[in-house]
Amino acid sequence: MTFTGFIGNICMFPLRAIIRLSVALRIHPNTLTFIGVLINSWAAYKLARGHFISAGFIMIVANIFDFIDGKVALETGEVSKFGGFWDSVIDRFSDIALFIGLIYLYSSLGRTDYVMVASFAMMFALMTSYTRARAESLIAKCKVGFMERPERIVLFMIGAFTNRMAAVLWVILVLAIFSVADRVILTYRILRDEERAATT
Amino acid sequence: MKRAPLPARMLWNAFFWTFERATWQYDVMVIAILAFVWLTPPDWIKDPMAHGSGPIGWLADHLKGK
Fold first, then answer.
1. Subunit contact A164:B21, Cβ cutoff 8 A
2. Is the pTM of this model over 0.80?
3. Number of A:B CB contacts under 8 A?
4. What is the ipTM of this complex?
5. Is B17 in contact with A162 (Cβ distance < 8 A)?
């Protein structure tokens, strides 16, 4: 077993209990999704104030809600197309909220350089999601690129808990640029091959 | 890319990422990222919230005999 797989399995123990509790309480998955974005907004406020440790703890709670909504929907049989759409939309709000928190912080410190780093990281993080969504309206699957949402969230937490947010922003920025490029390249190749096959 | 030399293939595979989570390639990437985040001296990247030279700076100073 890989070490990331091992860590994932450990994290699943408490999450399974929370999923069971949510199912027992009959909490609607869409409600869980919405609670997640509200708590993430609180984490963004803490980031904006420079309270990284408390922001890290709040992000853990928020992302438990983000993670379990889909699992609860599966267990309660409440999987719906709207649920998937709602989840994607709310996830983007959560992403943007955290970046805005950091942009506000760096702006209040007069650090325009990191305002730009955080802004570009936000732009490419959003484009990572957009390129996949748009690509999958044209091709069957576009799951390439490293920097997806779970990676971003874990990196945010690591940055918050260890006060290394600047390094984390650089990693998110560079790998998000690569991820967007990967998705554009893959989509281009598949569509080009399809067009060639259609013309021969 | 299959005929390219190994280092070029490694670079291409790191850039054009197609590996799943919980694979050894994913683990290597995670270790590289964590090494960058934790070992890069905050002063090198002008971190607005953290200061100091970090483990690499400490090691460099130690080797210089400071």
1. no
2. yes
3. 80
4. 0.88
5. no
